[in-house]
C-alpha cells in the first residue's frame, strides 16, 4: 500500500465529516432564505474553510501520488470540484466513495450492494440537485420552494418531465443535465440488476449446454472401454497363471 | 414452521378479503362524490373497522414473532401502513403477497410468473394511484375526474409525462413519486425478462466456451494414450505367454 | 398438423391482402377529409366487407379448432378485434404474425429478426396509432393534421411526451395507452437484444468458470497417475520377463 | 483485402478532415447569425466543395465495389446523405466509423469501448442535433438560441421532454425523431453494458451448474475404480511373480 492510499484511508472519515459540514453550510442559506446576517456570514466562512480543507487535501494527494501525471488525469473530476463552485456538493460523493473502501470489508452480496448504492446515490443526487436548482432558479424561474425543487428533481430523474416546473437559467439546466443522465444510469443499474438475477436463475435451472454433456458422455464411454480392456488383460493374466500352475505341477511330478 | 408463519398462512385469505373491503370502503366515496350521508358514514365506519383489524393483525404478528426486534426492523413498511393513512391501500399489496405463498405451489414458469406479477402490480398501482390522486387533487388541482386520474397515472408510470395533468398538492406528488419509481422498476423487470430470454436462447445455440471443449479434448486425448499403453502391455503379455508356451514345450520334450 | 393450422396457413396470404384493403379503406377517409361522398360510401362498404370476411375467418377457425374452449380462451384478442371497431386495425398485425410462420423458414439470425420485428412493429403501430388518434381527436383536440398525429405518436412511443400535443378524448387516450406500453416493450426488446449480445461476447472471451477448469485439471491429474500406475505395471512385467528368460536359460543349460 | 477496403482505409483520415471542415462551414452560419456576407458566401462555397468531395468519394466507392448491387443496398444511408441536405452532418459519423477501423488496433476492453462510443456518439448527436434544430426552428419556433437548442436536445435524448421547448417545423421534428431514437438506443447500450457486467460478475462467483459437476464427479469416480482395477491386477502380478520365484527355486534345488 503506497502513501497515497494510506493517506486516503486515514482521512476518509474526516473528509466525510467536512463534507457534511460543507453541505450544511451550503444548504442552510438556500433552504432558509431569511437567515439573520450573522448566521449567514458564519455559514459563508464555514463554506470557505471547508473548501480550503478540500483543496489542501487535493494538493496533498497530488504530492503523495507515486505517478503524478496519471493521478492528475484520473482525478480531473476532483480538480473540477475544487475549481468550480457549482460542482462542490459532489465532494460529499467522493467522501462517500472513500467510505465504500471501508464498507467493502462488510461483504454484502453484490446485488444488494448495488441496490443500496443506487438508492443512496439517487436520494443524495435528488437532495443536492433540489437545493442547487432552488439556489439558482428561485429569483427568475418557476421553481420557488424546496417542495417544487424536490418534485422537479424527481420528475427529471425518472425522465417523466411533466413540464410544470423546469429550469430556465444556464446553471439550472446544467444541474438538470446531471440529474437526467444520473437518472438514466441509475434506472439502467436497476434494470441490469434484475436482468442478471433473472439470467442467473434461469442458468441454474436450464443447466449446461448439450455439447458439454456430450463431451462428458464421450469421456465416460472411453473410460468404460478402458476398463473393459483392463478386464481382458486380467483374463489373459489368469490364463497365464493357470498355465504356470500346470507347469509347476508337471515339474513337481 | 414457527407460529408466526403458521398464523400468516392461516390468515392470508381473510386478510385479502378485509383488504378488498377496505379498498372498496376507501374507493367508493372518492369515485362517487355525491353519496348519501348514511352510506358515506357506513363506509367510513367500515374503513375504521378494517384498519383496526389490520392493526390487530400487526400486533398479533409482533407478539408471535420469534425474534421481535428483527421482525420490527423487517416490517417497517407494515408499521408505516398502520400509522400513515395515505399508505393504507398498500395493505392489499401485502395481502396479495401472502396469497403468493399459496400460489407458489402451482409452479408457473418463472418468466410467465414475472409477466403476471408485473401486469398485476401495474394494474393495481395504476388503479390505487388514480383513486388516491383523485382524492387529494380534485378540489385544487387539474385532475378532476377518474378518467383524468387514470390517464395521468398511465402517463406517469410509463414516464411519458405530457404535463397536461399533474398533481400540485404534496400528497398528490407523493403518490406520483411512488408511481414513477414503480413504473421504472416495472419497465426494468419487463426489459430484464426479455433480456434473460434472449441470453438463454443464445446460450443454448452458441454453446459452451472453447476452453471447456479444449479441456475435454485434452482429457479425451490423454485417455486415448492410456488405452495405447494398455494395448502395448497386452502385446508384451502375449509375447510372455508365447515364451512360456515354448518353455512348457521344451520341458515336455 | 391439424385442420386449424392447415386452414391458417392456407389463408394467411389472403388474410394479409384483406388486412391491407381494410387498412386502406379505414385510413383513406381519415387522411383525406374532403372525400367525395361516393368514394366515402364505397370505402365504407369495403370496410364492412373486410370486417365480414374477418368475422367469417374467426368463426371458421372456431369450428375447426380441435379443443374449442381452449381456442376461445387463447383467442380472446381475436374476439375483441371482431367486436370492437377501435381495435380492428390490429387485424393486420395478426395477418403479419401469420406471415411470420412462413418467414420462419428463411432462418434469419434471432437477433436480426428481433431488430426487423421491432422496427416493423414500431413503424406499423406508429402509423396505425397516428391515423386512429387523428380520427378521434381531429374535431375536439389539439391533434389536427396527420403530421401532428405522427409527431405525437413518436413522442409518445419514445416516452418523451413534450405535451405540445396530447389526446383529450377517451378513445384517443386508449390509443395513447397502447402506444406507451408498446413503446416501453419495444425499447425493452432493443435493450435486451444489446444486453444479450454483450453477454455473449463477454462469455466467449471470459470463458468458463474456474471450478470447471479445476474439475478438468483434477481429471487430467488423475489420468496422469493412472498412466504412471500402468508404467509401473509394465516395469514389473519386464522384470518378470527377465526372470522367465533366466529360467529358460537355466533349463537349456 | 479488396480495392474498396483499401481505398476506404487510405481515405479515412482525409474524409474525417473534410467532415470537420463541412461541419464547421455548416455550423458557423447557424451559430453566428449576423455574419458578414463575404464570410457567409465563402462558407457556402466550402460547403458545396466538401459535398462534391463526399459525392466523388461515394461514386469512387461504387466503382471499386466488387459486388456493385450489394454495395448499393448496404450503403443506402450513404446515398441518402449524398442526396438529402438535412442528413449531411451525418457524413462525419461515417468518417468517425472509418477511424474506428484504425482504432480497433488499440485493443480497448469491449465494455470501455462501448462507454467511449456511447458518450462520443451522444455528444456528437446532441451537438449536431442542436445546430440542426436551431437552423430550422429559429425563425418560427420557440428554440431561438443555441443554449435553448442544446437544452432541448438533452431533454429529448434523455426522453425527459419537459415541453418548454419543442420543434414545430417538419424538419425540426425529423431531427427530434432521430435524437429520440438515438437516445433510447444509447440508454439501451448503457443498461446492456451494466447488465452484462453484472452477469459476468455473478457467473464467475456463482460458478458452474450442478449437472457438470455431477458429470465430472462421475468421471472422477470411474477413474478411481479404474485405478482400483489396476491395483488388483498388480496384486495378481505379484502373486504370479512369487510363484515363478518358487518355481525357479525348485528348479535350482
Detailed description of the structure:
Chains A, B, C, D: It is found in: Membrane. Chains A, B, C, D: This is Potassium channel family protein. Chains A, B, C, D: GO terms for molecular function: voltage-gated potassium channel activity. Chains A, B, C, D: One of its GO terms (cellular component) is voltage-gated potassium channel complex. Four copies of one chain form a homotetramer. In chain A, 81% of the residues lie in helices and 0% in strands. By secondary structure, chain A is mainly alpha-helical. In chain A, helix 1 packs across helix 5 and helix 6 crosses helix 7. Chains in contact: A-B, A-C, A-D, B-C, B-D, C-D. At the A-D interface, helix 6, helix 8 and helix 9 of A face helix 7, helix 8 and helix 9 of D.
Major sheet attributes of chain A: none
Please provide the ordered H/E string of secondary-structure elements of chain A.
HHHHHHHHH
Span between N and C termini of chain A?
86 Å
- Tertiary shape of chain A: elongated
Total of helices of chain A: 9
The portion of residues forming beta strands of chain A comes to under 5%
Greatest interface (CB-CB under 8 A), with counts per chain: A-D, 57 and 52 residues
Q: Could you give the topology of this structure?
A:
4 copies of one chain form a homotetramer.
Chain A: H1 3-31, H2 37-64, H3 68-74, H4 76-83, H5 91-103, H6 110-137, H7 146-157, H8 170-206, H9 210-252
Helix pairs in contact in A: 1-2, 1-5, 6-7, 6-8
Amino acid at each position: 500500500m503506497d502513501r497515497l492510499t494510506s493517506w486516503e484511508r486515514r482521512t476518509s472519515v474526516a473528509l466525510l465529516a467536512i463534507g457534511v459540514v460543507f453541505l450544511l453550510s451550503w444548504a442552510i442559506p438556500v433552504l432558509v432564505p431569511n437567515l439573520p446576517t450573522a448566521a449567514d456570514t458564519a455559514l459563508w466562512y464555514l463554506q470557505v474553510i471547508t473548501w480550503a480543507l478540500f483543496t489542501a487535501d487535493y494538493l496533498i494527494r497530488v504530492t503523495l501520488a507515486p505517478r503524478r501525471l496519471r493521478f492528475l488525469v484520473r482525478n480531473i473530476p476532483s480538480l473540477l470540484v475544487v475549481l468550480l463552485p457549482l460542482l462542490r456538493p459532489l465532494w460529499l460523493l467522493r467522501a462517500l466513495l472513500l467510505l465504500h473502501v471501508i464498507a467493502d470489508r462488510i461483504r454484502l452480496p453484490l446485488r444488494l450492494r448495488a441496490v443500496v448504492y443506487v438508492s443512496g446515490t439517487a436520494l443524495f443526487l435528488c437532495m443536492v440537485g433540489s437545493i442547487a436548482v432552488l439556489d439558482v432558479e428561485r429569483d427568475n424561474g418557476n421553481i420557488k420552494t424546496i417542495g417544487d425543487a424536490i418534485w422537479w428533481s424527481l420528475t427529471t430523474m425518472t425522465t417523466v418531465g411533466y413540464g410544470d416546473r423546469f429550469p430556465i437559467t444556464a446553471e439550472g439546466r446544467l444541474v438538470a443535465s446531471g440529474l437526467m443522465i444520473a437518472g438514466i444510469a441509475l434506472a439502467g443499474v436497476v434494470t441490469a440488476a434484475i436482468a442478471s438475477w433473472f439470467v442467473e436463475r434461469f442458468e441454474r435451472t436450464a443447466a449446461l449446454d448439450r455439447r458439454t454433456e456430450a463431451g462428458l458422455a464421450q469421456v465416460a464411454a472411453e473410460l468404460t472401454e478402458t476398463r473393459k480392456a483392463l478386464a481382458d488383460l486380467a483374463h489373459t493374466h489368469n490364463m497365464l497363471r493357470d498355465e504356470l500352475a500346470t507347469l509347476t505341477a508337471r515339474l513337481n511330478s
